[in-house]
Amino acid sequence: MKALLSACILAVSTLVVGCGTIIRSDVTTFHEWPDTLADKSYVFERTKEQNDSLEYKNYENLVRHELNQLGFSEAPSGTKPALKAALSYSINGRDVREVYPVVVNPYPYWYGPAWRGYYGPFYDPFWFGPPVVEQRVSQYHLFNRQLRVTLARMSDSKKLFETTVVSEGTNGSLASVMPYMVRSAFTEFPGKNGVPRHIELKMD
């Protein structure tokens, strides 16, 4: 019976922890990255819609920062870069309904012998018998957030690096989550080829 109580408490605790400020992302990278790359200059390749989007420019700046941290450099205007970078992103949501067990007090008020004074069953959960477990329902909106970044050779458009970041959570603000998704995309660059990774980053 104690095992049942512990399992129920653990289930509730897991739900509470899941509501913290941790951004969890699943990252899958495919690459044919050369052992040496003398010229790491790049330029962003944008669609017409991206050129007109202030939101895109904000996310592009995040990718630019990560590339610069890795030793890449954006090519000055009028020069020919060795690489071209591209990014795309999306977010969509769905309603989720979860049923989970909760341990409840079957005796909310009880007065013991006079010398014991008043106390509730939480002092002795097995005084009257096993605990009562009720099923509770939780409903919320879950968002699926995706980011895709590619690096290709400028000369022949051959892709050298392609990574996809998928993150799910209740935060529907893509702008607040994107910095952590971009960081996840370049963690351990270029990363293991074709090996999915689970990355967790704490929000500042």
TrEMBL record:
UniProt keyword terms in alphabetical order: Signal
What organism is this sequence from?
Answer: Noviherbaspirillum denitrificans
Protein name (Swiss-Prot/TrEMBL): DUF4136 domain-containing protein
Q: Name one Pfam family in it.
A: DUF4136
DUF4136 domain location is 27-191
Q: Show the InterPro entries listed in the entry.
A: DUF4136 (IPR025411)
Q: Which Gene3D superfamilies match?
A: 3.30.160.670
- Report the leader peptide range: 1-18
Q: Which domain of life is it from?
A: Bacteria
Locate the coiled-coil region(s) and give their ranges.
none
